[in-house]
Amino acid sequence: MLWLPLGPFHAMENQMLVIRIKIPNSGAVDWTVHSGPQLLFRDVLDVIGQVLPEATTTAFEYEDEDGDRITVRSDEEMKAMLSYYYSTVMEQQVNGQLIEPLLIFPRACKPPGERNIHGLKVNTRAGPSQHSGPAVSDSLPSNSLKKSSAELKKILANGQMNEQDIRYRDTLGHGNGGTVYKAYHVPSGKILAVKVILLDITLELQKQIMSELEILYKCDSSYIIGFYGAFFVENRISICTEFMDGGSLDVYRKIPEHVLGRIAVAVVKGLTYLWSLKILHRDVKPSNMLVNTRGQVKLCDFGVSTQLVNSIAKTYVGTNAYMAPERISGEQYGIHSDVWSLGISFMELALGRFPYPQPLQLLQCIVDEDSPVLPVGEFSEPFVHFITQCMRKQPKERPAPEELMGHPFIVQFNDGNAAVVSMWVCRALEERRSQQGPP
Ligand code: ATP
Ligand code: MG
Question: How far is the CA of 320 from the centre of ligand 1 (A)?
Answer without folding.
Answer: 15
